[in-house]
Amino acid sequence: MGYCEGGYGVNITDGVYGSIKLDGLKYAWLARWPGQIHEGRGTAGIYIDENATKEQRDALVRILTGRAGGLPWTIFAATIDTWLEPKFVPFEWKFDGVHSSFKAGPFTHASLEPMRNPVTGDESAAKLVLPKGFVFKEAEIGSSRSFAVVDKGLRYAYPGKAASVAIVRHPTK
């Protein structure tokens, strides 16, 4: 069936884990599975903003590996067999709907653009609404101008593929 690959770039605008404030931190979570996600056996990498303190780094690693509880991370973590060592890297971040982009050190980057009509080249706008979604409830759909991850155990690129941008709230238990 081939590989399933993907990930997230996130800017925490308002976040807390216990008494640890996470506001303003950024991270990327990337993974690859040898088949369908629900079949497991995945490999995942976590790339955290180098500006995070030790306590913030530890909190984000707990959250992103599912050990803190809460969706969607407990579901994703159950499908991961191999966790790469977390990396603490500089982040570049631009949030502008389907014109958003990020770069996490030398390991991963994404740059989005609107979808385009293949005949006319005109921009097309689309939204996906998932009232019971556990990753997001509503997202703008665009296209990846560039998207790649290059790390030991994770190496893939998907320019020109579907991409989404969403504002989400992920509570932990």
Distance between the termini: 35 Å
Poorly predicted tracts of residues = none
| Share of residues in strands | over 45%
Radius of gyration: 16 Å
Overall strand count: 16
Order of SSEs, N→C?
EEEEEHHEEEEEEEEEEE
Mean pLDDT: 93
Tell me roughly what share of residues is in helical segments. Answer: under 10%
Oligomer: single chain
Number of helices: 2
Global shape: globular
The largest sheet is: 7 strands, antiparallel
Write down the domain tally: 1
Q: Structural class, judged by helices and strands?
A: mainly beta
Give the structure's gist in a few sentences.
The chain is mainly β.
Overall description:
The longest helix is centred in the middle third of the chain and has 11 residues, at 54-64. This protein is mainly β and 173 residues long. The protein has one domain (4-165). Strands 8, 9, 10, 13, 14, 15 and 16 form a 7-stranded antiparallel sheet that branches. It starts with a strand and ends in an 8-residue tail after the last strand. It has helices spanning 54-64, 73-77; strands at 4-11, 16-17, 20-21, 26-33, 42-49, 80-83, 87-89, 91-94, 101-104, 108-113, 115-116, 123-124, 126-129, 138-151, 154-157, 162-165. The mean pLDDT is 93.
